[in-house]
Amino acid sequence: MSDTNNINCLVLDELNVDEVPLSKEQYSYILNIQKVILESVAERGTTTDILDKLCSMAESLLPNSVASIMLKDPKTGLINMIHAPSVPQEGMDQFKDLKPGPGGGSCGNAVYRNEAQFVKDTFTDSKWEDLREIAYDFNLCSCWSVPVRDEMKEPVGTFALSSFEHRSPSQFHKLLLETASNIVSIVLKNGYNEKRVKIFTQSMENANEGVIITDGDNHIIEINRSFREIYGYTEKDVLGKNPRMLSSGLYSKKFYEDMWHDIEQEGHWAGEIVNSLSNGEHITQWMSISSIQNEDGSRNYLAIFTDLTELKEAQEKANYLAYHDQLTGLENKSKLVKNLLHNEKELTLIHLDINNFNYINTAYGFVFADELLIEIAQTLISLCDTPDVFRVNSDEFTLMCEKGLDPEFVIKKIQKYFYDNSFNIRGVVLNISFNYGAYTGVENLLENASLALKISKDLGKNRYHIFDDTQDLLKKEDKNRFIQANRLILDALEEDRIVPYFQGIHNNRTGRITKYEALVRIEQNGKVFTPFEFLEAGQLSGLMPEITKVMIEKSFRIMQTREDSFSINITEDDLGRNYLPEYIAAKLQEYSIAPKRLIIEILEGISSHGKQSHIKQLNALKALGLCVAIDDFGAEYSNFERILDLDIDFIKIDAKYIKNIDTDSKSYEIAKSIANFAKNSNILCVAEFVHSKSVQEVVEELEIEYSQGYYFDEPKKL
After folding, report:
1. CA proximity to 335, closest of 395, 394, 388, 403
2. CA nearest neighbour of 687 among 619, 641, 640, 634
3. What residue spans of 209-294 are helical by DSSP H?
């Protein structure tokens, strides 16, 4: 799998919604699958056609996914993919004779553990350790698998949804998987046509949903266990009677006329309805009624229903939790965003960020901090009669004020109160202060208030800033430029538009270019973007390792046909991922490149105060036979002792000391000191930004071994 697909999975992961209460439409989808598949069973369809139809229907409810059914060989205990209509044969062949176990993927674990497995990231989850390459090859980012069980509740296979996105199943998709698993169990029991009707009857009897079957005159002829348990009626109580005996009396005659019109004209009806139990209590249900045409021309009616009482209570609770902070009881950020979504009137937002809250958490513990947050929330509510108060982050609150309320007045009122009053939590007395960011307007309220809060933090603690559309516009444009640069990187990774350019490094002893530095560029619509335009965004968004991998791959591919030495830049983020020694060793072997040809360039800051794990990786790279260079030396810390400890091969003097070395005495003296240090330490030296003959002459005077700059060579494709 390419690194581009990795990025796709990551960005798409920022759009997944985890737990969403089931809607009426979703329940209808589930009931429709039951109806369609069970009708196919009753009509004696082939097992293959039925299970393929089930997979296709399940896939349609999860975009960008494939459904599959795996079965266990009772003789070998191994599992095989049997049904997967959307998976090519090549893919199905990869899932043959798999051994269930802890590293056997989602399905292997579902069979091994006899419980559902919801793996969000197959690339990192230990459950996919034995099948990692298959996940990479077919870009299977996540996989949710539910065991298919026999009559003894033992696993005989699995039903799975595999996605090309990193995501977790919603409540709806968990129910879909469980339903499909139960249906597969039913279908597998129908190996012989003569048993199908019996098994269908048993499945209806044991279904969790209530079932009523009536004849053509709408008299009840069958009920199942769930109906008896839910309604409190026995078969004797209801057989032969009209289902209107269940009516709650809450609906008009027209309601039932419309229902029967749909049943007769469309063949089915589905909806929420309130009926009466045997004790007179009301029950809210989701009911699906279907008209079944028999071969002899007669007709039956099948009603399947689910008790929605607990679900509706759960939904009400879920809706509350979705828009409220559980700790303080305040409305949360989701509610704030919802309120602002279609806002058309002028409002004021004031963000409040508690100063030193991380310290309070660390010093006194989370329980103490939670009690403090509750006290702060209650205080803000009592102080702010007009604004709505939201808790939008762990240590951040937001006030939403109607037009006409001066944000500066509100802020100063809060400042004064918290200055004059302390909190006593478990005998500990604390004074609390905030940073404040405010914005008044109609659009972009959250964005501008957040930017104002950031500006206030730059001013110091207990400060406030009210966003000004004119003065703060430049800061906002900077943020927009970052977003655009981040998008540029993501698109370039996805569309394979990251390209290595190479700048020659001149050997001052031989007078020839003998080395090259690989420099990252992005090409788009005929324009070439330099790192100056996107590097900071890549660092802030954590995308540098993905860029580095592309640069290594493409530079190695180009250099495998040449004999020059060349250098690759790596970042602290690369070292933080702990992948470099193994990855570079594999690429050296893949492209048959001698390790001594490769130079790894690191920034001076990494060498001077790098983490121990970083130093360990650099030593591991040295052990491969690579060379290590310190880039932009002199720009930051110049920790000479650490450089000697690392056994550095090259020092590249920072450009700011070279570009004016022929006219600036301070630059000259610093460059001279670095060159002398390198010479005395047997480290080769490279002067960067050599742009003129006069600069080169001084470089040669200082006996610096190499020169790099436009005087000798401009970055270009090789």
Report:
1. 388
2. 634
3. 225-231, 235-238, 253-266
How far apart CA 269 and CA 579 sit, in angstroms, is 57
For residue 42, pLDDT over 90 is answered with no
User: In DSSP terms, which residues pair with 348 in a beta bridge?
Assistant: 401, 440
d(CA 197, CA 43): 9
Distance, in Å, from the CA atom of 100 to the CA atom of 417, rounded to the nearest integer, reads 63
Q: Which positions ≥6 away from 292 have C-beta within 8 Å?
A: 39, 299, 300, 301, 302
pTM for this prediction: 0.41
Q: What are phi and psi of 73, to 5 degrees?
A: -75, 115
Residues 477, 482, 483, 485: is their CA dihedral positive or negative? positive
Q: What's the pLDDT at 194?
A: 45
Q: How many residues does this entry show for the chain?
A: 718
- Show me where the domains of the chain are located: 3-196, 207-312, 325-471, 482-708
- Report the SS3 class of residue 712: coil
Q: What is the CATH number of domain 207-312?
A: 3.30.450.20
What confidence tens digit (pLDDT) does each residue in 566-613 have? 999 998 888 888 899 999 999 999 999 999 999 999 876 564 444 567
pLDDT at residue 703 is higher than 60? yes
pLDDT in tens, 206-219: 777 888 999 989 99
Tokens, residue 305:
């229903």
Q: Regarding the domain with residue range 325-471, which homologous superfamily does it belong to in the CATH classification?
A: Reverse transcriptase/Diguanylate cyclase domain (3.30.70.270)
Cα–Cα distance, 604 to 233 (Å, whole number): 81
